[in-house]
Structure formats: C-alpha cells, structure tokens
User: Fold this.
Amino acid sequence: MYSPGNILFFTPFFFKNGHPAKPKFFVVIKVIENKTILASLPTSRDNIPSKDEIEFGCVELAEISLNCFVISPNVAITECNKFFDVPTFIYGHQLDTYDLPTLQSTYRIELSDYEIFGKMKSDIFSKLIECLKNSKSVKQKYINVL
Assistant:
C-alpha cells in the first residue's frame, strides 16, 4: 500500500496541522527506512501565474520559489488507466513526511478508511521525481532523500 508511486485516497485524511479532516488523495513519493513516508497531498488549487500555466508536466518558477507538477485530467496517470477528474497540482513546497506506524494504525480498513486509487505510471512518476529533485523550492532534506 505505501510503496513509491502509489496513489491513495483517504476518506477522510486527518491533517497533521489540525485542519479539519476531509477526503484527500495522497501520493507516496518515498519510503524511508520503513518508518517514514515522504508524500504529497495533491490539490485542485491552481497557484501558478496564468502566463506560466501548462496542461501537464513540471513548472519551476525559481524567481517566486514555486515548483509544481501539473497533472491534466486528460492524461491517464495510473497503470490501470485512471484519471483525476480535474487539473491536479503537486507542489514541491508541500512535500511532507508522515510516520508509517501512525498511518498504518489510522487507516486500517481498505474501502472504508482508504482506497488504493492506483500506481502512477512509471514514466509519469519519474518525471514527477525529476521535477521535485531539480527544484529550488523543495526542502534540501527532501531532495537528499530523492
């Protein structure tokens, strides 16, 4: 379940910062020593300036410290050919780590607590990793992990 490239959908996801829980996608980027998950919580919120918008791929705007991987709703992103319903954004500055034992104890029942949406296609996952690794806005400690 928590292997790199897997896209999970939590119903609901409990945020570490205390924000109200809500249904949320979760992209597993890396598993660190079987204790910690480096992950992204994709969003439909578009924070890219309109002049720099793209439909799919990496956006790096170093001058405003913005890194984003854009996923078009027209692109099948999983090996089982699933799509996101809306344009989806993975922001480099929003990468975070999550304690694996806490995730495992919180989300125990598949199709009740979570759903495995699918495994990201390897070429798309590779592009996502490259986008994050080459960014000035991703925290150095995460770049080292990647």
About this structure: The mean pLDDT is 96. The chain has three helices and eight strands. Residues 122-133 form the longest helix (12 residues).
